[in-house]
Amino acid sequence: MKTIGMIGGMSWESSKIYYQHINEMVRKELGGSHSAASVLSSVDFDEIERHSFSGDWDKIGDLMALHAKKLEAAGSGLIVLCTNTIHLVSGAITNATKVPFLHIANATGEAIKEKGMKKVALLGTKFTMENDFYTKILEEQFGLEVLIPESYDREKLQSIIYNELVKGVFSNESKEICLEIIRKMEAKGAEGAILGCTELPILIPDSEASIPTFDTTKIHAKKAVEFALS
């Protein structure tokens, strides 16, 4: 079993779910008392948040490279960045180490193609929805048509994520707002909805959405376990 290196803390609300999923999946695959060999390097999210909103992505890239090097030095056999948005600077990680890096958009694209879908909605932070680091992979490598919410709904998602979810606040009111956004995307032809913020699956149960949802946290964790056990 390869050691899974995780860069977490963005936010820790979802990082703990990564840890849970990864260990549950390893136990399911290997049985007995098995758990995952893993190393977690966790950031102070307040610093990441400040740099995100000021647009200092180079600084975030430097921080991600630093944590990736820590994971490499600790013997990690692969690196997982436990967040969607900060994949915007994933190149800083791949340039800093020789350890295989598992990109969350690649894992998500594979999961969507397995379902035979062609058109999907992407919900997440404004950084994820409005930049092309995520959608470009889905479109160019997997041939998907990616729909994003209208500006007003992007603002609502941004507010819910940064003012509530990353602080551990998961309200029914915000859940209903997100479910309504998904219904709007369904009306535009979306066959499924990518929960492209790792806190969103905590808020939105798949069973309550009008179309199938893609839990990027679980999808990414599954790909990490498959790689670690390969």
Automatic annotation (TrEMBL):
Keywords: Isomerase. Its EC number is 5.1.1.-. InterPro entries: Asp/Glu/hydantoin_racemase, Asp/Glu_race, Asp_race. The keyword Isomerase applies. It is an enzyme of class 5 (isomerase). GO terms for molecular function: amino-acid racemase activity. Belongs to the aspartate/glutamate racemases family. This is Amino acid racemase. It comes from Flagellimonas nanhaiensis.
